[in-house]
Each structure stands twice: as C-alpha cells, then as structure tokens.
Amino acid sequence: MATVGDRQIQGAGTTPEAWLQWSGFGEMPAIEASQLVPPGHRAVVVAPHPDDEILGCGGLLCQLGELGRRLALVAVTDGDGSHPRSTLWPTTRLRNTRPLETREALRRLRLERATVTRLAIPDGQVSEQEAVLQQRLLEFITPEDVVFATWRLDGHPDHEATGRAAVEACRLRGARCIEVPVWTWHWATPGDPRVPWERARRLDLEEDVLALKKHAVNAFGSQLTEDASTGQGPILPPAVVARLTRAWEVYLT
C-alpha cells in the first residue's frame, strides 16, 4: 500500500493479538480527555483522509463531546484516491461519499455540532501540497487550540505530511500539537524502537464509548467492503479495524 523508509504498510501487518499481549500498554502512563483538552480550549483534529479522525481519535472525540468541548475537524483530502482503477468506486463517487461518511460517523458519536472544514487537497498528494496545508492550518488554528494530527512517522506519505504541517503550524501559532499513530500499528511491533514510546499516553475508553466508536467506524462503508469491480478486499480489513478499536487510544504528547 505505502512505503516510507523502513515503515512499510504492506501485507497483513502486526496482528491485533500481538499488540493485545504486549505489556507496554499497561505500563504506559494513562491520560484523561480533560487533560488532553483542558476547559476553554478547542480540539482540532486534522485528518489526512475521511475515517482517520474516527480510527485515531473516535473515543477521545466522544469523551470531549460529553465534556462539552468545542470540536473542529479539518479534512485534508476527500479520500477520493482509495480505490484506483475501480469502476464501482470512481473518484467522483468517492469525493462525494467519503465526506458524507464522516458526517454520519460524527452523528453516531453524537457530535453533530462539530464543524468540518474540507481542504480538498488531492488524495495521495499531500506531500506535494505540504506548504499549502501548513498555511491553511495557520489560518485556521489559534493559540488556544489543541491540535491532533497523524504522527509525522506514521508510515503513510499523506499521514506523515499532515503531521509535519500540523506540528510546524502549531509551533508558529503557539498551539499545542498532539500526534496520533494510525498506520503505525500495522508496520511497528510491540516495543519497536522506531516508536517514541516515552511520549505515548494511553486514553482508556469505557465500554459505551468504545461501542460508539465502533459504530462510527462502521459508517465508512466505502472502506469496509470488497470491491467487486477490481476483486480487491476492503481498504480497512478486519485486522486493521481491530488494531484501532481497542479499549484505549494512544497519543504522542
């Protein structure tokens, strides 16, 4: 699927079971949603593709909604490059469908009041448009925002470019930026020295919150079903979903 250096998103990746058996999660310092986004601050989630905001931060978003925090989503791309050569999911259909899936996912999390800003940067070309993205983020965020973006070394070029742009925009604006591993769980292994575990914090999700997150993930039907026109399996096969719907989320603070 993608390769950045030695961070390869190919094959089945590290199994969900291998991660669940790792003692590192239990040893990881826990953090609460109210600590990640204190009162008076707005949470801004910068998602490279529709679904990244829910896969990475769905539980946190749900908890922040319950706390009454202001929530804003920045959709970097419309995710219209997920099904190359597909006649079932051509780019025009994806461009229309995937933002609607995000809206439905937010509704399932009871976050209808969250704002969504679409930047419409071409899917797969975020690296080439990184300076544009950084400028758009500078215009959007404020020093009081807490910004969540995919980790700069997440393994997917769009994710890494999004992380770099967000970190730099936050530095210039004086906002806090927290990075979110998404594809990391595919290519990394438990205790992997390439991951900055010393920065990692575990956000525990209660059963009801986890259930809402899983329900929200299921809103992304375009990514969860096989493509009969190409014979390809789902973009998000069960193992990928399982790795990202554990009873906790991890944030690099």
Automatic annotation (TrEMBL):
| Extent of the signal sequence | none
MF terms (GO), sorted A to Z:
hydrolase activity
PANTHER family from the UniProt entry: BLR3841 PROTEIN (PTHR12993:SF29), N-ACETYLGLUCOSAMINYL-PHOSPHATIDYLINOSITOL DE-N-ACETYLASE-RELATED (PTHR12993)
UniProt-listed Enzyme Commission number(s): 3.5.1.-
Q: Which Pfam family would be a valid example here?
A: PIG-L
- Sorted UniProt keywords: Hydrolase
Species in which this protein is naturally found: Pseudomonas benzopyrenica
Write down what this protein is called. PIG-L family deacetylase
